[in-house]
Design brief:
By secondary structure, the protein is of the alpha+beta class. Helix content is 20%, strand content 37%.
């Protein structure tokens, strides 16, 4: 499988440099995926946890989303030719630059929900015992 230059377009650096998103914003990243010789786009939508290295050539950003009850994080290079486009869906104001604490916050919320479910289960009526 060879990747030709036609399939992956070069990144317009000025557009990516001027993207105004930061930690706390919700973004959708359209990623190019090569399958069976064809290129398809796959969206990854989530909360930006961090943005590192500013606007240098090695700049990256981390996105977290919850898929089927499991937290998934991906790190994207800002200037990657595999990224078709980055859409900013929602802006939000945060007091921090790196939101890594959201990982533990999400775990605490899940544990809280599970605790309430198990309490509710104990209060349910017992099953009818079969005669022996």
């Amino acid at each position: 499988m060879e990747i030709t230059k036609k399939e992956f377009t070069p990144v317009t650096q000025n557009d990516r440099k001027n993207l105004d998103f930061k930690a706390g914003d919700t973004v959708r990243v359209w990623n190019k995926i090569l399958e069976k010789g064809k290129v398809r786009l796959q969206a990854f939508e989530g909360l930006v946890l961090s943005r590192k290295h500013g606007t240098e050539s090695g700049a990256t950003f981390t996105i977290r989303k919850v898929a089927s009850g499991v937290g998934v994080e991906r790190i994207f290079p800002l200037y990657s030719p595999n990224i078709d486009k980055i859409e900013i869906l929602r802006k939000s104001k945060t007091r921090r630059n790196k939101l890594y604490y959201i990982r533990t916050k999400a775990v605490k919320e899940v544990k809280k929900r599970l605790k309430s479910i198990t309490i509710g289960r104990d209060e349910a009526p017992e099953e009818v015992k079969s005669e022996e």
